[in-house]
């Protein structure tokens, strides 16, 4: 049969070795407030506090504003601040860094440029549909949004005309790093890449000069061929977004004005701005020691690439509302899922690039017994900013539901070490990732694991379950968590092993392999499809059975093999409602209820 052959072919391709694929937890678990009360997370916060405090014993005197953000809470769930706010003034209690201190965040601005495009993609779709304007999407060619954009002729014909917003946001357009030419000459030693020299060049860039430079400057590589950092690309990204908005709304906004109106205002980011420092914010401005850009007025052309000022508290709002909350603001959940995915892998296989993101990978053991534990890989979607005495980092860990903000500035003191936000990032993730991983899986165990019995029919098909007044002892299911994975260990209906029944569909006289009816059972992977979760109402979480014990994640799709009621044979349903948890396996028309032990 075609059915048997397909399964057998997949089976022969699978290698049974020490398991290395650890599924993510359901999205709803990430925003569970109880995660923050887990002992591992509480202990990890204490460890982070000790580690950051230790830096200020003998190591550094730099200013630091740090925050951790979680999907369940608006704003920060942990903060740490230390150092002098204004290094051109006498240190004192009124001159200390706080969570409301305002730093230049330099290239973290690029993440906001990308987000501004997403906001317009979401908000203008319904407006543009009734006009002559094409709907803006992240895959829109730049030339359709910004007619002034062009390139040298050969580059234009070799894919340049098809450069999209996503390619600009992921540094894969081929545009040069900068939107200006320098007079540096390393042979004769003419010019230096100092804070003063670079700051002056950045201050001189206008949207018009950035477009003119693109017109005259050859691409570094063919579009989408490679990834290479480009401030010029983000200048043009900002120009394209605001050009589209102005055409659609008959306005004449600059990109900073659009970002302020469409992001800062709705997110209540009252300490964030572009351009000259407002008088009301002067007392909160961080000023580094040594050469700095506190007084630099960024050119309008480079505001989308590096012009933003912000505080840890404001950036925490942004990360929560835009990138961590279970119901994101200003963009859709679908947009967020698409953006939190790699778009390009560098040849070293370790560095990944997304739209507005620099992606780093971390391996975390699935238990404290590291000699026997599996390892799961988590991705940090972040953005760094460095320049003029300021350093910044923001990131989110999408499948753990948390993120961080790191803002720092040089003290200018030669006897102390400078803070590097990416080093802070790595040290904190080494502490927090295992803790959050343990906590979210503990919530999975608390909410779903256990013995399920009291079998009844769901009513989807004819009666399948015999019941008695004292409950059905031959119909039950057992769910357990091991190595941070939820397993369906057993599913028995009227004395019949349902997992073996699933395996038997593929058995022949020569082959009787077991994929699901093993001692381990079936590993369960959250299935987040909206339609199938909606079928059983509020509180539903559908799970897909995954073959346990694989060295790589199983992405072969068994979902197409359906029962008589058109429900996938490889999916079970857990429903949390009115203080109880039910397990449904529609192919067998069975509903079980968890026993409260």
UniProtKB/TrEMBL annotation:
InterPro entries: Beta-lactam-related, Beta-lactam/transpept-like, Beta-lactamase-like_AB/R
Keywords: Signal
Coiled coil (residue ranges): none
Keyword Signal attached: yes
Signal sequence, renumbered to the chain: 1-19
Domain of life (superkingdom): Eukaryota
A Pfam family reported for this protein in Swiss-Prot or TrEMBL: Beta-lactamase
Residue ranges annotated for the Beta-lactamase-related domain, each copy included: 74-424
Family: Belongs to the beta-lactamase family.
Protein name: Beta-lactamase/transpeptidase-like protein
């Amino acid at each position: 049969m075609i059915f048997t052959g397909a399964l057998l072919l997949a089976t022969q391709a699978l290698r049974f070795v020490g398991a290395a694929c650890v599924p993510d937890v359901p999205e709803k678990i990430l925003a569970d407030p109880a995660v923050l009360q887990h002992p591992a997370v509480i202990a990890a916060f204490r460890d982070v506090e000790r580690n950051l405090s230790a830096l200020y014993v003998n190591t550094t005197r730099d200013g630091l504003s740090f925050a951790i953000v979680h999907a369940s809470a608006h704003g920060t769930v942990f903060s740490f601040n230390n150092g002098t706010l204004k290094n051109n003034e006498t240190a004192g209690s009124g001159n200390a860094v706080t969570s409301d201190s305002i730093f230049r965040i330099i290239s973290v601005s690029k993440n906001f440029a990308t987000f501004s495009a997403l906001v317009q993609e979401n908000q203008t779709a319904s407006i543009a549909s009734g006009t002559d304007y094409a709907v803006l999407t992240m895959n829109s060619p730049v030339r359709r949004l910004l007619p002034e954009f062009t390139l040298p002729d050969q580059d234009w014909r070799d894919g340049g005309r098809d450069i999209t917003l996503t390619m600009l946001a992921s540094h894969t357009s081929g545009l040069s790093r900068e939107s200006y030419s320098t007079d540096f000459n390393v042979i004769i030693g003419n010019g230096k890449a100092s804070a003063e020299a670079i700051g002056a060049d950045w201050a001189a860039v206008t949207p018009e000069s950035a477009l003119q430079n693109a017109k005259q400057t050859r691409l570094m590589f063919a579009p989408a061929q490679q990834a290479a950092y480009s401030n010029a690309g983000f200048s043009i990204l900002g120009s394209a977004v605001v050009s589209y908005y102005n055409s659609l709304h008959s306005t004449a906004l600059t990109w900073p004005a659009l970002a302020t109106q469409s992001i800062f205002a709705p997110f209540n980011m009252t300490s964030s701005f572009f351009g000259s420092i407002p008088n009301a914010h002067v007392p909160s401005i961080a000023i580094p020691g040594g050469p700095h850009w506190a007084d630099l007025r960024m050119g309008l052309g480079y505001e989308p690439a590096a012009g933003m000022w912000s505080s840890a508290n404001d950036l925490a709002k942004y990360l929560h509302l835009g990138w961590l909350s279970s119901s994101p603001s200003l963009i859709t959940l679908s947009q967020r899922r698409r953006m939190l995915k790699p778009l390009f892998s560098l040849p070293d296989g370790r560095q990944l690039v997304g739209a507005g993101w620099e992606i780093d990978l971390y391996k975390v053991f699935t238990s404290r017994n590291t000699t026997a534990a599996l390892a799961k890989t988590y991705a940090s979607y972040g953005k760094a900013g460095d320049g003029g005495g300021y350093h910044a980092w923001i990131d989110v860990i999408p499948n753990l539901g948390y993120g961080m903000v790191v803002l720092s500035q040089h003290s200018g003191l030669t006897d102390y070490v400078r803070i590097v936000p990416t080093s802070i990032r790595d040290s904190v993730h080494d502490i927090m990732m295992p803790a959050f991983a343990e906590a979210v899986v503990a919530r999975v165990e608390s909410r779903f694991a256990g013995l399920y019995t009291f079998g009844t029919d769901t009513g989807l098909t004819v009666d399948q379950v015999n019941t008695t007044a004292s409950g059905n002892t031959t119909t039950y299911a057992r769910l357990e968590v091991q190595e941070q994975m939820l397993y369906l260990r057993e599913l028995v209906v009227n004395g019949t092993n349902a997992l073996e029944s699933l395996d038997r569909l593929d058995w022949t006289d020569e082959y009787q392999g077991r994929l699901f009816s093993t001692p381990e059972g079936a590993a369960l992977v959250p299935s987040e499809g909206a339609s199938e979760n909606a079928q059983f109402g509020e509180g539903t979480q559908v799970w897909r059975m995954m073959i346990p014990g694989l060295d790589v994640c199983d992405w072969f799709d068994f979902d197409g093999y359906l029962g008589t009621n058109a429900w996938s044979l490889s999916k079970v349903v857990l429903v949390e409602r009115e203080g109880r948890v039910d397990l449904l396996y529609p192919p067998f028309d069975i509903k079980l209820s968890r026993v409260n032990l």
